[in-house]
Amino acid sequence: MEEKILLAHGSGGKLSHELLTKTVVNRLSNPFLDRMDDSAVLDIRGRMAFTTDSYVVSPIFFPGGDIGKLAVCGTVNDLSMAGAVPLYLSLSLILEEGFPLSDLEKIVFSIRKTADEAGVKIVTGDTKVVNRGMADKIFINTSGVGEVPEGVDISGSYARPGDAIILSGTIGDHGIALLGTREGLEFRTSLQSDCAPLNVLVKEILETSKNVHALRDPTRGGLAGTLCEFARNSRVGIRIEEAKIPVGREVQAVCELMGFDPLYVANEGKLVAAVAPKDAEKVLQKMRSNRYGAEARIIGEVVGEHPLRVVMKTRLGTSRIVEMLMGELLPRIC
Amino acid sequence: MEEKILLAHGSGGKLSHELLTKTVVNRLSNPFLDRMDDSAVLDIRGRMAFTTDSYVVSPIFFPGGDIGKLAVCGTVNDLSMAGAVPLYLSLSLILEEGFPLSDLEKIVFSIRKTADEAGVKIVTGDTKVVNRGMADKIFINTSGVGEVPEGVDISGSYARPGDAIILSGTIGDHGIALLGTREGLEFRTSLQSDCAPLNVLVKEILETSKNVHALRDPTRGGLAGTLCEFARNSRVGIRIEEAKIPVGREVQAVCELMGFDPLYVANEGKLVAAVAPKDAEKVLQKMRSNRYGAEARIIGEVVGEHPLRVVMKTRLGTSRIVEMLMGELLPRIC
Lengths: 334, 334
Hints:
2 copies of one chain form a homodimer.
Chain A: H1 14-28, H2 31-34, E1 40-43, E2 47-55, E3 61-62, E4 65-66, H3 67-80, E5 85-96, H4 101-118, E6 121-130, E7 138-147, E8 164-167, H5 173-181, H6 199-208, E9 212-216, H7 222-234, E10 237-241, H8 249-258, E11 272-275, H9 277-288, E12 297-303, E13 310-313, E14 319-322
Parallel strand pairs in A: 5-6, 10-13
Antiparallel strand pairs in A: 2-7, 3-4, 5-7, 8-11, 8-12, 9-11, 10-12, 13-14
Helix pairs in contact in A: 1-4, 3-4, 6-9
């Protein structure tokens, strides 16, 4: 008989302890976590980046990843976008009563594998169980801390006129891969989520240039959302060219079929950088040598005109104002 | 018409931004959060404590608190139990589509008020919205970081034979207060949850004695769970006396009526300390001068005999082995 999560696994008693040690702590083992205190005590020197994200993606297993991989990548990437070296993650699980233990094991395995790739440790955690029907299978929160190297100061509010806007690769892969797996949809693609930890790519970028002003991963809200945030927070204008934005053939096809604009579709393994023009080319070349930046392109620039606005030159040669997403395109993509 | 949470509030687009700025960021405002980057960049000196907890309490408003107050207290207390000074919290919300905006506002207000009392700042956050029926109203994750003062080294694995076991007050108040509010129960009490931030109490304890070995807040699993953890993690025996454990009159009455053992009922504003015997009395006196420790008592001691076991001398004079909770007493009390 398949083992399932019981309410008692969240009781703080014997079953909680067994679940935690066997299924979680043993597999993520490290000296901080193994102490099983309520807090981990860590050595952090100087400036520290701190971030949090809850993951409610549906389905929890999708082409190119699962909720566990996503939960590590998303938080590693948020730390990286502050220019930080991600070091330690927390892991908090909300489980629905009846959730198969074997699925939890797969997810914990995936968390471990992704954390190893990114070079981060899961040092503290929490597990809650809610009654059947009160949550959808599993929700995961990861929070993370990292060290910001001396001299690094990056923010979505630091983009400056003249900066090149560099995008690390194709857009829309994550959102469309998820869409493809959802019930009731009549297309099948070989498309995979781009879900990936970008900390090494960011490290290489920051070693190449001291003039990286802003970094962000265009997740929910897509590339459009990220560029609008740069424009608003930095009080600058941004100009991009549609023809320079890489979109995969399948993503393009599905977007046309479904009436989506890839600019608004979520990514989980891409970044956008605003870089001083003199360093743009060398940053681009460095990015292309990393597998997660192989298709990087300069897609536009920061301008002094039309502050707070993102304007795109379309393939037809016309100009279009790019707004933030209004409404909801694809719920629960992360 | 009452405003409700829409899926689009979690889209990463315009509505997400409006909800965040108006309802959350403006009310929790501080220079770290106001930057609205994906990570906060903080200055931390020396050793840092890091913890996480997700809160799924039901009902979300209860006598003596709500899910917002609980989410701040729980994480502040977990940091405090590592001997840390809590400084910064993250706040991640999972909202069910249709959740009333006015309830969210009340909860954010409560978060702000409790954070102010505890002297911590909410510096980074995240909001997700799931379809109606896919979560129960609101789940909150708070993670926290704090500084561990020089020379402080406290862990559930450091209890030593001879240590006095000090309990900061009555047990069972939180769990029984919640029970009293749940539907279908035929009793009404004036009982309130003990939900409170304990960081000042811990600071005072640590200023009074350098010989505090272990601290923990007996939440899920109750006092029994915490003592069993001390015994297991420190590989010691623990002896307590039932007659010395303070239990409120109403909690006692409800427990008798319902067949609960208050040892297993959750607390959210209590702590248990293992303190070297020579300092026990002065720590106790100091605790009693703090409103959250006014009813503190020495309830037993750590012993070299029967390692890993907690033994209680009952009111009848017999001895009883106290085990961890088996099964689930009250789901979703935190």
